Amino acid sequence: MDADNKSYDDINVTPMVDLYLVLLLIFIIMTTAGVQGVKVNLPRGGPASSKPIEGPKMQAITVNNEGKVFLNTLPVTLDELSSKLEALKSSTPEFPVVIRGDSASQYQGIMDVLNVVGRLGLTQIGLATQAKK
Predict the structure, then answer these.
(1) For 103, what's the count of Cα atoms within 13 Å in the CB-facing half-sphere?
(2) SS3 content of the chain, % helix, strand, coil (to 5)
(3) Cα(30)–Cα(48) distance, rounded to whole angstroms?
(4) Which residues in the chain land under pLDDT 50?
(5) 59-128 architecture in CATH?
(6) Where are the domains of the chain?
(7) According to the model, what pLDDT value does residue 5 have?
(8) What whole-number distance in Å separates Cα of residue 113 and Cα of residue 76?
C-alpha cells in the first residue's frame, strides 16, 4: 500500500532526449542535403557514353553564366584554381574532376578551366550535362 502513495519527484527525461536526437538527425540530414554546389543551367547532351564519375576526392569546377569560376562551392580565380588543384594533386595523384558550365556561359571560360586542368596533367575529367528529353 505504501507503493501506491509514493510521490514522483523525478522527471523521466529519456523521451525528451530521444526527441532531441531525432531532431538533431533531421537537422544534419537537411543541412547536408542542401549543399550541392553552385546552381547552373547545364547544357543538354546526348546519351551517357560513360559511367558517372564519383568518389570521395572528386572536385567540381563550375563556370556560371557570368563567367565566374567556382571550385566546389568556393569562388576562385584561374590562378587560385591552378594552385588549389596542384596542392590536391600533390596529396592525391589521381582524382576525378567534373566541369560544369552554364548553358549561357561563354565557351572561353570553360576552355580556360580545361587548359588549367590539362596543364596539371589530370586525366580523369568529366563534363556535366543534362540528359536529353
Answers:
(1) 7
(2) 35, 15, 45
(3) 30
(4) 53, 55
(5) 2-Layer Sandwich (3.30)
(6) 59-128
(7) 65
(8) 11
